[in-house]
Amino acid sequence: MEKVLDHIGVAVRNLDESIDFYENVLGGKLIDRYRSEAVGVESEIAIMEVNGTRTELLAPSNNTTSPIARFIKQKGKGVHHIAYRVDNLDDALNELKELGIRTLEDTLRTNKHGRRLIYLNPADTQGAIIEYCDYP
């Protein structure tokens, strides 16, 4: 199954300062900004586009339960995940299962833009946080 880079997620402490950098230094455009208080997400998200490439800026909205807050505390701010778009998420999940690659089942969800997504288990990805997503 073909995989195409969809976006890169970047953990940030200050969303406004990060948006300013992407707009004024990189020449990017703010596509959307929203807050997700879903359990296991608890983040404010800004979608930036620079020359057709998207970056999700992720800031924790709850410093005790947000996985982004945990990530920043453990590893510092910076690249959080790399997302690959697949044609069909269900088929991709079956392929992963056949290959013995586990997913983090509790991360399976549909975001506000209709993107279905799930994270692969970093224990099976050489430590990288990888997201698979589709746009049904």
UniProtKB/TrEMBL annotation:
Gene3D superfamilies: 2,3-Dihydroxybiphenyl 1,2-Dioxygenase, domain 1
Keyword Ribonucleoprotein: no
Transmembrane portions of the chain: none
CDD domains found in the cross-reference section: MMCE (cd07249)
Domain spans labelled VOC: 4-135
InterPro entries attached to this UniProt entry: Glyas_Bleomycin-R_OHBP_Dase (IPR029068), MeMalonyl-CoA_epimerase (IPR017515), MMCE/EMCE_epimerase (IPR051785), VOC_core (IPR037523)
Keyword Metal-binding attributed: yes
Keywords: Metal-binding
Pfam families hit by this protein: Glyoxalase_4
Lineage: superkingdom: Bacteria
Protein family according to the UniProt entry: Belongs to the methylmalonyl-CoA epimerase family.
Name of the protein: VOC family protein
Naturally occurring in which organism (per UniProt): Bacillus carboniphilus
